[in-house]
Amino acid sequence: MKKQVYVLALFALLIFSMCQNPKTAEKTIKVQDKKESCSSPLTATDSAKYVNHRIEIKGEIETPLQLTVDSLKKFPIKTITDFKIVCQSGETKKIDKNAKGVLLKDILEKAKIKQNGHKDRNFYIVASASDDYKATFSWAELFNNPTGENVYVLFEENGKPIKNGEMILICKNDIKTGPRHVYWLKSIEVYKVK
Ligand SMILES: Nc1nc2c(c(=O)[nH]1)N[C@H]1C(S)=C(S)[C@@H](COP(=O)(O)O)O[C@H]1N2
Ligand SMILES: [Mo]
User: Atom 1 in ligand 1: which residue has the minimum CA distance?
Assistant: First the structure.
């Protein structure tokens, strides 16, 4: 009888510890998320330090371009609505009721990627900011995938010029839109996979 109680207690303890473990793990992840939290409150001075008045399109292209907000407006202008910036952590950081910009695909078509025949498709495109934040795209997702219709360089949010820099690059169909949301956009560079 005593033995049975002992076994039962041990079993209960085991169940209890099994229930506890996932919670502890969850807590650790949450703390880690906090530690790696993406936003540091920006002062106006910070933002002014990183602002760019033009973005450079460079790398494996035939026509390097320098684009300002005014020159962007000469491309076909697209309007997007209800765009949410969601951080990797799941936190909604910003909501644009509407925003205006141009497709990255249209810009790259003007710059013309240096392709050697139709099998030369292994390129990657890096959008960089002046604080060295970066986002990467592949040739295929821009030119042979619906994502190509969802990657924009924005110059206007909610009827006003952009706050953090003059242009922002976004990918509207990403699951978490925070990571490939690049403010203080400085350059878009095309690289060939070696
Ligand atoms: N240039 C630049 N763009 C960036 C970041 C950054 O640190 N620098 N942070 C990214 C992250 S982690 C998120 S979630 C979104 C939204 O960040 P915000 O809340 O600082 O606007 O912007 C992204 N774009
Ligand atoms: Mo983030």
Answer: 183
